[in-house]
Design a protein that fits this description.
With 372 residues, this protein is of the alpha/beta class. The protein has two domains: 2-107 and 247-311, 3-Layer(bba) Sandwich (FAD/NAD(P)-binding domain), CATH 3.50.50.60; 114-244, FAD/NAD(P)-binding domain (3-Layer(bba) Sandwich), CATH 3.50.50. It has helices at 10-22, 62-68, 127-138, 158-174, 195-207, 249-253, 293-311, 354-371; strands spanning 2-6, 29-34, 38-40, 59-61, 72-75, 78-82, 87-90, 95-97, 100-103, 108-109, 146-150, 180-184, 211-213, 218-222, 225-228, 233-235, 238-242, 245-246, 278-280, 323-328, 334-342, 345-353. The strands form seven sheets. The protein has a five-stranded parallel β-sheet with strand order 5-2-1-9-19, with helices on one face. Strands 13-12-11-17 form a four-stranded parallel β-sheet, covered by helices on one side. The longest helix is centred in the C-terminal third of the chain and has 19 residues, at 293-311. The chain is globular. It binds flavin-adenine dinucleotide.
């Protein structure tokens, strides 16, 4: 059997490693396709605009990693999938057949869904956008108005809070004072992460004199202002707004898939709702709850386990959503939020300070040490 994985981020990498451990290489072939030859530990991108990290410490080349594991690595861009015929069409015209497919291709920011937003907001989704943001941040001078926010529909709100507190720490260090306004579509700050999480963010906002609006949506961006649906027009000379996500281009070109803005619906087993031999993991699927590397990692492992179960004619496992957030808070360390279902019920906890910050760095080191 041939199992093909599209994408080598948290989801794809963990799916490949799990399959390699569980399958006999003389009977099965594992192929992984990525349009990026490098693994990027994306949570570390948050430090790049503020000179707190260097790129070579959170990236590594994928080919040698997969060669060591006897997994075929193909650097190519997928252009379309033909699920009725079980093949993938790549940019260079190459056709790759599969028996099972794991889609771990992530998502892209959908700037165009908010009127006027495209080209206006800084971002930290990729190395190149984080470096552009660094340039803009370095050019900030005293009293320039800053707007940071989370537009309706964005599924990874934590990035905006991290950016807010990292930028505040950066400006403080340069002794530059700028008025910062924050907005979010969430009903309250840091919604869904528990009372302690919200209280900690509120406390920090008050301490740093950051004005905020909750439960608002963006109507449009025009003439250097963010227009909110509560009637406020926020002027900015620098802005960082998290947009909704959309799926990768090839999903739109693959006629055999139903999707919502390119995001693919899945069953509890992570199988596509239409194709039992196709699994979708991580940012690419429509599972509710924050889109995180941790979720993509767990889903990649589960999809691989379920392929093995399908091969063995065993019942498939269902995905159990666990929340683990490690949110950087600039000069205030970080915050860890855990919400996990275990054998004795639900394990919950919130910890703030230097320990969660060290833990986030440790996760990155673990990936670099284990896979590079
Ligand atoms: C600044 C920032 C901070 C974050 N902080 C955290 C955090 O603290 N904790 C946390 O858990 N998560 C965090 N996240 C979220 C986390 O990084 C994402 O949820 C995670 O990367 C999603 O993993 P994925 O495998 O689904 O997709 P991705 O990591 O996006 O990987 C997608 C893969 O698919 C490949 N690909 C895409 N299109 C194609 C194509 N057409 N052909 C071939 N290959 C393709 C890409 O090259 C890549 O290899 C953060 C993200 C950012 C940007």
């Amino acid at each position: 059997m041939r199992i093909v994985i599209i994408g080598a981020g948290f989801g794809g990498l963990n799916a490949a490693v799990t399959l390699q451990k569980k399958l006999n290489p003389s009977q099965h072939e594992i192929l992984i396709i990525s349009d990026n030859p490098q693994f990027v530990f994306r949570p570390s991108l948050i430090w790049l605009p503020f000179h707190k990290h260097s790129i070579d410490r959170f990236t590594f080349p994928l080919r040698p990693t997969f060669e060591k594991m006897d997994i075929t690595f193909i650097e190519n861009r997928v252009q379309a999938i033909k699920p009725k015929k079980n093949y993938i069409l790549c940019k260079n015209g190459e056709i790759i057949h599969y028996d099972f497919l794991i889609l771990a291709s992530g998502a892209s920011p959908d700037w165009r869904r908010i009127k006027g937003l495209e080209g206006e907001s800084s971002s930290v989704y990729t190395i190149s956008s984080a470096l552009k943001t660094r340039k803009k941040v370095e050019e900030l001078t005293e009293n320039e108005p800053i707007v940071i926010g989370i537009a309706q529909g964005n599924p990874n709100q934590g990035i905006a809070y991290e950016f807010l507190f990292e930028l505040d720490a950066f400006l403080n260090k340069q002794d530059i004072k700028c008025p910062i306004t924050f907005f979010t579509y969430e009903k309250k700050l840091f919604e869904g992460k528990g009372k302690k999480g919200t209280a900690r963010i509120e406390e920090l906002m008050a301490k740093k004199q950051i004005k905020w609006y909750c439960d608002v949506s963006v109507k449009k961006i025009r003439g250097g202002h963010v227009y909110l649906n509560n009637g406020k027009h926020l002027p900015y000379s620098f802005t960082h707004i998290l947009p909704p996500y959309k799926g990768k281009e090839f999903v739109f070109s693959s006629k055999g898939f139903k999707h919502d803005h390119g995001i693919l619906p899945v069953k509890e087993t992570l199988q596509s709702v239409q194709w039992d031999n196709v699994f979708v993991v991580g940012d690419a699927n429509d599972i509710k709850g924050a889109k995180t590397g941790r979720a993509a990692e767990q889903q990649g492992i589960l999809a691989a386990e379920n392929i093995v179960k399908q091969l063995n004619h065993e019942p498939l496992l269902s995905y159990q959503h666990e929340q683990l957030f490690l949110t950087e808070l600039g000069n205030e360390g970080a915050m860890l939020i855990l919400n996990k279902l275990n054998d004795n019920g639900i394990l919950k906890g919130t910890i703030s300070g230097i320990f969660p910050h060290l833990l986030k760095r440790a996760f990155e080191k673990y990936y670099m040490f284990k896979y590079s």
